Amino acid sequence: MTRLRWPAQLPPDDELGAVVHGPVVLARSPGIAAGLRCVFAHPTGLHLPLVLRAEGVQAEAAGRRAGWRPGDDRADRDPWSGVLLTAELDGATRPVDPAGRTTTGSADHFHLRAGYWIGALPSDGRLRLTVGWPQAGLAEHSTELELGPLDGLGERVRLLR
Predict the structure, then answer these.
(1) Which superkingdom heads the taxonomic lineage of this protein's source (predicted)?
(2) Given the DSSP bridges, would you call strands 158-159 and 15-16 parallel, antiparallel or unpaired?
(3) Which residues sit opposite 17 in a β-bridge?
């Protein structure tokens, strides 16, 4: 049986989403932390820009797991070899695949930026996110977000066309 996933998808490129939640740290373990810059809402879904920073042995492990090497800026790596993000909304839980990610680092610092898209809006305004990367030392942790108003997004989203 195939498990449903939120596929790797970019947010609409002709819209600027409305901010419905501010920055939040989603998970922290010694030497490594992951968080959201914010949550952007669009009429068709949610855009989640995630950042992760690691130092020391966690940076080395993250770089090795992500396939990053100094001078390597490719973003075409296997999306399942790194951070694992799961979203629960309206009683359904699905893994979320990154639409794009960049990594930078050195022997003792690692930084990852990834964009995730959830192609639905929660009817109750709640979004539960679980993030982890055990291979890099980030223990799995769940956070429930209470999103700002999702009604009237058509008027709050800015069009670029």
Answers:
(1) Bacteria
(2) antiparallel
(3) none
Residue 48: other Cβ atoms inside 10 A: 26
Question: From CA 81, how far away is CA 117, in angstroms rounded?
Answer: 18
| Domain assignment present for 11 | no
Domain around 134: 18-138
> Which tokens in the block code for residue 91?
């009683």
144: nearest Cα among 48, 50, 7, 24 = 24
Instruction: Tell me 6's DSSP state.
Output: B
pLDDT tens, per residue, the chain with 161 residues: 557 999 999 999 999 999 999 999 999 999 999 999 999 999 999 999 999 999 999 999 888 877 544 444 444 444 446 899 999 999 999 999 999 889 998 889 999 999 999 999 999 999 999 999 999 999 999 999 999 999 999 999 999 98
**CA 63, CA 82: separation in Å to the nearest integer?**
9
Rounded Cα–Cα distance for residues 85 and 132 (Å): 7
In a domain, 148, yes or no: no
Residue 40 inside a domain? The answer is yes
Yes or no: say if 62 and 32 are a contact pair by the CB < 8 Å rule: yes
Secondary structure of residue 135 in the 3-state scheme: helix
